[in-house]
């Protein structure tokens, strides 16, 4: 299976996201912000970092990159897409996920290992997890506060589209302790924490994040069966 990993000017975690895809036995395909197509990949990861220097708002410029036209089109046709941190911000700016990410409540950049609860294990990126499982992955962001209007929050909760929830102290003021959400079809997932930095205990706090990448490969294999 081919998983594309996009690099924008300012992206930081593309190499780690590609490594995580390879750990899950996928072929990682580098995509560039200026690409006009997705080079035949089966899924896409929009990784973390500081695309375009976070100018205007995190993700506000990257969402206009040429590659994002293809990502939006592919996502609307059912391609699995994962947005990690800045990638989550970009997917919200591009309209593929509801809500927005705002400055952390205490206006400090938060960088710590963070416990999460898996609330939805039916998405393209969470099938390997038990519902209710708690995983430990790094959180490192300045605009990690998930916000949405009450009707959107009610819709997300009612439809089970909150995929990850912070456990313990809320690190950034996110409404309903939301750490990640998904599209209505469960194919597009965005989260602020970094599963690509938790794929082996040697280089991260755990290997709890690896399941997301295996889940995508499982979903892609199942879709072609
Ligand atoms: N690690 C990241 O991707 C950071 C995302 C964004 N630059 C923020 O600080 O919120």
TrEMBL record:
Active site: 85, 194, 196
Keyword Zinc recorded: no
Function, as annotated: Part of the phosphoribosylformylglycinamidine synthase complex involved in the purines biosynthetic pathway. Catalyzes the ATP-dependent conversion of formylglycinamide ribonucleotide (FGAR) and glutamine to yield formylglycinamidine ribonucleotide (FGAM) and glutamate. The FGAM synthase complex is composed of three subunits. PurQ produces an ammonia molecule by converting glutamine to glutamate. PurL transfers the ammonia molecule to FGAR to form FGAM in an ATP-dependent manner.
Superkingdom in the source lineage: Bacteria
Subunit structure, as described in the record: Part of the FGAM synthase complex composed of 1 PurL, 1 PurQ and 2 PurS subunits.
Pathway membership: Purine metabolism; IMP biosynthesis via de novo pathway; 5-amino-1-(5-phospho-D-ribosyl)imidazole from N(2)-formyl-N(1)-(5-phospho-D-ribosyl)glycinamide: step 1/2
Protein's name in the database: Phosphoribosylformylglycinamidine synthase subunit PurQ
Pfam families the UniProt entry points to: GATase_5
Main subcellular location of this protein, as a coarse class: cytoplasm
Substrates-to-products reaction catalysed: N(2)-formyl-N(1)-(5-phospho-beta-D-ribosyl)glycinamide + L-glutamine + ATP + H2O = 2-formamido-N(1)-(5-O-phospho-beta-D-ribosyl)acetamidine + L-glutamate + ADP + phosphate + H(+); L-glutamine + H2O = L-glutamate + NH4(+)
PANTHER family in the record: PHOSPHORIBOSYLFORMYLGLYCINAMIDINE SYNTHASE SUBUNIT PURQ (PTHR47552)
Keyword tRNA processing: no
